[in-house]
């Protein structure tokens, strides 16, 4: 439900501060890894006092959860605007690959954050958002839950391997893998 705007701009300033803190959290992860995320480090990166970070996100897990959810949602919005209407597997593969290559350090930070959900249960609902994003992207090709799960695992594997090898993501390889999963499931 929408809230009424505050005439003195407090709500807008609060939203801007939260945005700066989330962006700063991802930059800290890019530079120092998830282990480097503290209220002090994020506040310094955002250019605000530590108390501001603690006020908006009382626990580090709150910062991490919000950053992961925000990253997944931003990725979904970006792809929704970039993908042409009636996109095919080739379009999807090209866009997924380009997004990772253009923002390699951010992709690494987001995967590190995503993997933290294995150790931090508070992050799991936010991590599940990534799977939901991929399910939305796969919807024109399959809605079968098993195929979507296999496709998600395949894409995550390809992108993680590219990061580990410090190699570019090959869109042709991504498209071929997606075809194997989707067409194999249709048999």
UniProtKB/TrEMBL annotation:
Keywords from the UniProt entry: DNA-binding
Domain (HTH tetR-type) ranges: 15-75
Entry GO MF terms: DNA-binding transcription factor activity; transcription cis-regulatory region binding
Superkingdom assignment: Bacteria
InterPro entries for the chain: Homeodomain-like_sf, HTH-type_TetR-like_transc_reg, HTH_TetR, Tet_transcr_reg_TetR-rel_C_sf, TetR_C_31
Lipoprotein recorded as keyword: no
DNA-binding region: 38-57
PROSITE patterns documented for this protein: HTH_TETR_2
Classification via PANTHER family: HTH-TYPE TRANSCRIPTIONAL REGULATOR RUTR, TRANSCRIPTIONAL REGULATORY PROTEIN (PROBABLY DEOR-FAMILY)-RELATED
The name this protein goes by in its record: TetR family transcriptional regulator
Organism of provenance: Streptomyces odorifer
């Amino acid at each position: 439900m929408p809230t009424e705007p505050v005439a003195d701009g407090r709500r807008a300033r609060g939203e801007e501060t939260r945005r700066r803190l989330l962006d700063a959290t991802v930059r800290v992860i890019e530079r120092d890894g998830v282990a480097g995320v503290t209220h002090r480090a994020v506040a310094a990166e955002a250019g605000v006092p530590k108390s501001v970070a603690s006020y908006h996100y009382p626990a580090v897990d709150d910062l991490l959860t919000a950053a992961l959810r925000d990253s997944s949602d931003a990725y979904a919005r970006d792809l929704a605007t970039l993908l042409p209407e009636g996109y095919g597997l080739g379009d999807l593969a090209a866009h997924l690959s380009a997004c990772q290559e253009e923002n390699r350090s951010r992709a690494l930070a987001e995967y590190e954050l995503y993997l933290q959900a294995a150790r931090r249960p508070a992050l799991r609902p936010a991590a599940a958002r990534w799977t939901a994003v991929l399910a939305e992207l796969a919807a024109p090709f399959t809605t079968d839950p098993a195929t979507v799960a296999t496709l998600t695992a395949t894409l995550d594997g390809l992108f993680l391997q590219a990061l580990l090898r410090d190699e570019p993501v090959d869109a042709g390889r991504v498209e071929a893998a997606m075809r194997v999963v989707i067409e194999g499931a249709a048999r």
